[in-house]
Design goal:
single chain, 144 residues, alpha+beta, 3-stranded antiparallel β-sheet, 7 strands, flat
Length: 144
Amino acid sequence: WIATVIEGPQAGWCYLVDPMLPNQSITKFSGMAVAGKNDKSLMGCTMDALAHFSLVISNEALVLVDIQGIELPVYVGGIRDTNQLTLFDTMTHTLAGDSGIGDKGVDGINEFKLHHHCNSICRGLGLTPTSTTIKNTKKAKLPH
């Protein structure tokens, strides 16, 4: 949801607001400085591959970090089907280092590349192993 301030000094500012989520356990897949190593579950492997994919699709300009979420059951016609994962509070490291609190810029991107271990989903997507590109990331300013 997006909440917009309508009056006062921050009028016009918008905030992304998570809906109230049930009191469920939060699953943390990665941290700010540590790439996930979730080789025990399909959901965990998928989140690690999502972070790796974000690095590739952005041409190494950003990487998703601090991935966490709540897994909830989905019901179809009153019958429990599969689970869905609601992600929240995900952060990024960017080349410019200006995406918000916790953005460690190039150093954060390189930390991810150093610690990420490709899994079967990364390989299935044909993602280049991150350890082979660590020296290619340099400090830069991105156009806004």
